Amino acid sequence: MAVWNLGSINEDIVYSVPHIPAAGETLAATDKRHYLGGKGTNMSVALARAGAQVKHIGAVGEDGGWILLKLAEYGVDTRFIGKVAHGTGHAIITVDSQGENAITLWPGANAEVPLDMVQLALSEARTGDWFVTQNETNLQEESARIARDLGLRVAYAAAPFEAAAARAMLPMTDLLVLNAVEAEQLRSATGQGPAELPVEHVIVTLGSKGCDWVTAQDTHHFDAIPVTPVDTTGAGDTFTGYVLAGLDRGMPMAQAIGLATRAAALMVTRHGTSDVIPDLAEVQAFRP
């Protein structure tokens, strides 16, 4: 099977700071680093490193050739990443001494993914494959509808949260992944809690408190693995990628979440984004 990911592609510029700047505050960074990132890219790399066959659908600018090379090096199929007139998207990320972060995004090419690229990609998909998307590109709703019509299962990470996008995606979604803040935003937008949504499986990530797997019948809680975090950037995307990779291999949901929890715990002990997502052997060998 395969996972088809309509996802964002960014250059991440990461600044280490003593604390997250307040409004109007000027703060000197203690370090600056460049990484390959974007929620979509992070998920594709996590999927590939977890052993899944992942096909990325997206766009970069003419300045994005290095990104295609890196993704291919990590095992991601890049045939359906187009080059468009806008420059490649980027994110400015500040990370404080406790590992917490604040992120400013410039969408760039992520908002210009061509519909014909999506159609070409999904023409190769097979019934039972997974399609996953987030809120950092255009064409989420249109692409999910194509995927559902072709018999694919649809996963949706509702971040960054947009009420209109979430409402449009929910009827087509089999697996919804969102954090606690996004879950409350969705409740405010729809009047429905996770168990009331028209989605078979909902996973609410809770940071250091773990996650809840919610169905209409029950809620199962999974504790986080205690570690000392140095950078939480990309941990949620790593978690989502590993969950999908497990499900794509036929794992029961609880087993897939357990694997993803280990991957996310290992991820937060590392500085960076896509470039430092652990592979399956590292996750399995991880002894916190």
TrEMBL record:
Activated by a monovalent cation that binds near, but not in, the active site. The most likely occupant of the site in vivo is potassium. Ion binding induces a conformational change that may alter substrate affinity. K(+) binds at residues 231, 233, 267, 270, 272. InterPro entries: PfkB_dom, Ribo/fructo_kinase, Ribokinase, Ribokinase-like. One of its GO terms (cellular component) is cytoplasm. Its cofactor is Mg(2+). It catalyses: D-ribose + ATP = D-ribose 5-phosphate + ADP + H(+). It comes from the Bacteria. ATP binds at residues 179, 205-210, 236-237. The keyword S-adenosyl-L-methionine does not apply. It is an enzyme of class 2 (transferase). Its main location: cytoplasm. GO terms for molecular function: ATP binding; metal ion binding; ribokinase activity. Pathway: Carbohydrate metabolism; D-ribose degradation; D-ribose 5-phosphate from beta-D-ribopyranose: step 2/2. Belongs to the carbohydrate kinase PfkB family. Ribokinase subfamily. HAMAP family: Ribokinase (MF_01987). Catalyzes the phosphorylation of ribose at O-5 in a reaction requiring ATP and magnesium. The resulting D-ribose-5-phosphate can then be used either for sythesis of nucleotides, histidine, and tryptophan, or as a component of the pentose phosphate pathway. This is Ribokinase. The gene is rbsK.
